[in-house]
Automatic annotation (TrEMBL):
Transmembrane segments: none annotated. PROSITE patterns: HTH_CROC1. SMART domains: HTH_XRE. Pfam families: HTH_31. The lineage of its organism: Bacteria, Bacillati, Actinomycetota, Acidimicrobiia, Acidimicrobiales. InterPro entries: Cro/C1-type_HTH, Lambda_DNA-bd_dom_sf. GO terms for molecular function: DNA binding. It comes from the Bacteria. Residues 35-89 form the HTH cro/C1-type domain. This is HTH cro/C1-type domain-containing protein.
Length: 93
């Protein structure tokens, strides 16, 4: 394994603290867990995030638990067809 702290390995890059620096989303079921991980890191409750997004908390819960919807499946199919990958990582300035 490389010593590069930001390298993506097996779908997840790990930084020096051992936390994932980013998530490579390979299918629609992986997107939600990535969102959940970063929500936890920001110490934001599911209810608070759902309210800020104007979503029902149960819908956010379903997404975080990998239960996708038709729109997410279509997005991931389009990405696969075009040879693209979806990466979730903290925004940089």
């Amino acid at each position: 394994m490389s010593s590069n702290a930001d390298e993506v390995v097996a779908g997840r890059g790990e930084n020096v603290s051992g936390q994932s620096a980013e998530f490579v989303v390979l299918n629609e079921a992986m997107f939600g867990p990535a969102i959940q991980e970063f929500r936890h890191r920001s110490a934001t409750s599911q209810a608070d995030l759902a309210e800020r997004l104007d979503l029902h908390r149960s819908y956010l819960s379903a997404l975080e638990n990998g239960r996708s919807n038709a729109a997410m499946r279509a997005i991931m199919r389009a990405c696969r067809e075009l040879g693209l990958e979806v990466v979730v990582r903290p925004k940089t300035l």
